[in-house]
Specification:
The structure holds two protein chains of two kinds.
Chain A lengths: L1 H8 L1 H26 L9 H12 L1 H29 L17 H4 L1 H25 L6 H9 L2 H28 L8 H41 L1
Chain B lengths: L2 E7 L8 E7 L8 H14 L22 E2 L2 E2 L21 E5 L8 E3 L2 E2 L2 H8 L21 H11 L6 H5 L6 H12 L8 H14 L10 H5 L7 H16 L1
Parallel strand pairs in B: 1-5
Antiparallel strand pairs in B: 1-2, 3-4, 3-5, 6-7
Helix pairs in contact in B: 2-6, 3-5, 5-6, 5-8, 6-8
The chains are: A mainly alpha, B alpha+beta.
The complex binds iron/sulfur cluster (SF4) and FE2/S2 (inorganic) cluster.
Chain lengths: 229, 247
């Protein structure tokens, strides 16, 4: 027990916790995205609703939901502690400090990108997760998606948050590899390529949904309006 | 060349500091940055003023004492050089140059541009050594060392303890320094006996000194005068994890 406490108290221990929880959250993103692709089936949401119902009713999935909650908590708490400590290590700032010349911008703003992604997460849960779990009668998940994604402001914020998620993961994936001791300059290219799946493809995949629904529905509404003329 | 220097002046550790501006018209592009400070100091002494205090010793990039923050870059612009190896040809006639000491709480300013880097010494005392019994010298070939391990250990051993990694890091993290020192010994058979203790104790001391947590920005690697690779930080992370499990 003492050993575990000492591990978590150390700088590296907290960062290893961040890395493991971060990678776990990445696997969750993959699952979430694959499931959401059912939105594109074009059957008026039938498969998507069936999938959501299965997820909500499955005991294993409900258990994993708790693990996921702890994953988020572990990542956020460790991230906050690391950030707080880092703010106290230099009391006098430099007059001139050219970080742009020696490090990438996404690596220096993970707290900011992470915080905005967190706000997004709360709104996201409010829009989809809470009504599906607690509203009576349970609304159709597909209906909730259409309702949210035909709202221009909601779509804009959604896409904005995904861009920040991309920045967060642009740093996060390779940083997790480094902190777990799995990164090496010899195969940096490979790590960056795998990282690109997470920071590029996944946010793109998620962003395609609001964009698709916004334009698809706006256009079909316009077509209907034209037809009524 | 004409150079305007904006230099941090601070009487002692307890006093408040401020920037002072000095202009020198007699700068040659062949001068090193420390020679520029020498020239400015000669003027100051002639005027009966206190010369600028700065640390230096070898003036050839091997002692690690000369670190300065120059225009927002540790050891100034350029790659793989210490401040003493920076030449005025890296600047233009008429430039204004801002010179500051390393800024990190574990490196308190003693005077002007001189900081106290003894926190590094205390990290070394916590485990940056091997314990050997004195006695007859062992046969040099008795301990097999794989060639690539020797190379990597040698690369890590190139660290001169200058502190530029800490100074450049937005978190004032000392991970590159500690990683270099841990790697150097972990890679060689002589270092194996104390391998786990070394990783745990040096990291513990590093945290105790108040250095920040590494957030994998790699600004340290970019500014290190000896090109110490962040691969060493990955190795330190492995060593620490391994030590936590095996100890
Ligand atoms: S790792 Fe590089 S920058 Fe850091 S103390 Fe050693 S030589 Fe200086
Ligand atoms: S004076 Fe020795 S490294 Fe610069």
């Amino acid at each position: 027990m003492n050993r575990l406490v000492a591990f978590y108290q150390s700088s590296i221990g907290k960062k290893i916790t961040m890395s493991l929880t971060g990678l776990f959250l990445c696997t969750f993103l993959v699952e979430h995205l694959v499931g959401n692709l059912l939105l594109f089936v074009g059957d008026g949401g039938e498969s998507f609703d069936a999938y959501s119902e299965f997820m909500a009713g499955n005991f294993v999935i409900r258990t994993i939901e708790f693990v996921l909650l702890f994953g988020f908590l572990g990542h956020i708490v460790s991230g906050y502690l690391v950030w707080r400590k880092n703010r106290t290590s230099r009391s006098t700032d430099y007059e001139v400090y050219r970080l742009n010349e020696n490090s990438p911008i996404w690596s220096r703003n993970t707290m900011l990108t992470g915080s905005i992604v967190f706000i997004f997460l709360v709104i996201h849960l409010r829009t989809f997760f809470l009504p599906l779990r607690f509203d009576d009668p349970t609304p159709s998940p597909y209906f909730l998606v259409v309702q949210a994604f035909t709202n221009g402001w909601y779509c804009a914020f959604y896409v904005f948050a995904l861009i920040l998620l991309a920045y967060h993961l642009r740093h996060g994936f390779q940083a997790a590899m480094q902190t777990l001791g799995l990164r090496n300059s010899r195969y940096e290219g490979l790590i960056n390529a795998i990282g690109a799946i997470f920071w590029l493809l996944i946010p793109l995949g998620f962003a395609s949904m609001p964009i698709y629904f916004y334009f698809f529905h706006t256009m079909s509404n316009a077509a209907m309006a034209l037809g009524a003329l | 060349m004409k150079i305007t220097l904006k230099v941090w002046r601070q009487k002692n550790a307890a006093s408040e500091g401020r920037f002072e501006t000095y202009v020198s018209n007699t700068v040659s592009e062949h001068m090193s940055f420390l020679e520029l400070l020498d020239v400015v100091n000669i003027d100051l002494v002639k005027q009966g003023l206190e010369p600028i205090a700065f640390d230096h010793d070898c003036r050839e990039g091997i002692c690690g004492s000369c670190g300065l923050m120059i225009n927002g870059r540790a050891h100034g612009p350029g790659k793989g050089i210490a401040t003493c190896q920076l030449h005025m040809r890296s600047f233009k006639d008429g430039d204004e140059i801002v010179v500051e000491p390393w800024r990190a709480n574990p490196f308190p300013v003693l005077k002007d541009l001189v900081v106290d880097r003894r926190s590094f010494d205390r990290i070394m005392q916590a485990g940056g050594y091997i314990s050997v019994k004195t006695g007859g010298a062992p046969d040099g070939n008795a301990l097999p060392v794989p060639h690539d391990h020797a190379e990597k250990a040698f690369d890590a051993a190139a660290c001169i303890g200058c502190g530029a990694c800490v100074a450049a890091c937005p978190n004032s993290s000392a991970m590159l320094f500690v990683a270099a020192k841990v790697s150097q010994l972990a890679l060689l058979p002589q270092g194996h006996a104390e391998r786990a203790d070394r990783a745990l104790n040096m990291v513990e001391q590093m945290d105790k000194e108040g250095f920040g947590n590494c957030s994998n920005n790699y600004a340290c690697e970019a500014e290190c005068p000896k090109g110490i690779s962040v691969d060493n930080i990955a190795r330190l992370n492995r060593e620490f994890l391994r030590a936590t499990v095996v100890k």
